[in-house]
Amino acid sequence: MQTYGGISVVNAIPSWYGSSMAINLKVNVEITKGEYKGDSKLIKTILDFMKAKYSIGPLDVKVYSEVPQQSGLKSSSAVSTALLGEIKRKFDLDIDVPKLSAILSIMAGVSYTGALDDAVAAFYGGVSFTYNKEFKIIDKRNPPEDVSILLIPIGNRPKVKIEELKKYNLIFKEIFHLALRDIITAMKYNGILVSEILGYDKKPLEEISKRKEALAYGISGNGPSIFALCKKGEEGPIYEILSKYGKVILVSGVNLEGDNR
Q: Where along the chain is ATP bound (predicted)?
């Protein structure tokens, strides 16, 4: 099963309302009979649950991922939905993959909110809008058209300041409502605010903000990866700025209508 990484439209930690957009960084998962010998707590939690609930297993799991871990690019949700989706397909189970991914992510201790918004985007593609406290999908939409995404993918995220983010719950709730009308502007406000609250280096963002080509920019998820959104064909100046701060990759928003839907 193939799923996708993503970038944040609205961080779900402060208000439980979250929105993510799938990007063309792929995660593939394969399962076979055997014992999983890896060290992923998330994968172990999923396998233990499936064995206890459905008497499925033992299973070995192979993950092929283009998404760096602990980077804010939704790697955990991509892996969990790919694994659950593959188990669902192979054993013909009636399960809600994104919702179960969120529940098991909390159980595994890899997510505070369960990251339902990330799971929905990873599994279905496009842009998700969710209320994670109640595991509720509010909407799924196509991504903005004719845009490019430039990333500096950075792994090994420092410990997230959850309580600090939660102080801004009202602001992030308003950004979420803005996202329902204007995804790109909400993405920019969210990215800048997360960078400010979590204390990441703002020099790249300050430089990007001076360029009219940049539609949105900031920190994805809880960081530390940096992203910028621009119109297709206008990537040059943004690429030059970001390349001063790390290795830049160019990806695009994706819509998987007809795949996992």
A: 68-78
Instruction: Determine if residue 148 is labeled as part of a ligand binding site.
Output: no
Task: Give Dmax over CA atoms of the chain in angstroms.
Answer: 57
78 is in an annotated binding site: yes
User: Is 69 flagged in the annotation as binding?
Assistant: yes
Q: In the numeric block, which tokens belong to residue 118?
A: 């990330």
Please indicate if the annotation marks 210 as binding a ligand. no
Give the Cα separation of 258 and 239 in Å (integer). 32
Is 40 annotated to bind a ligand? Reply is no
CA 1 to chain centre: 17
Q: What is the set of domains in the chain, with CATH numbers?
A: 2-141 (3.30.230.10), 147-251 (3.30.70.890)
Give pLDDT tens digits for 139-158: 999 988 889 999 998 776 66
- 73 labelled binding-site residue: yes
Q: Is 65 annotated as a binding residue?
A: no
**What DSSP line would sit under 127-162, residue for residue?**
EEEEEGGGTEEEEEEPPPSSEEEEEE---SPPPP-H
Q: What are the C-alpha distances in Å from 261 to residues 2, 6, 111?
A: 13, 17, 24
pLDDT of 256: 55
Question: What is the C-alpha to C-alpha distance for residues 157 and 232, in angstroms, rounded to an integer?
Answer: 29
Q: Distance of alpha carbon 78 from its chain centroid, rounded?
A: 7
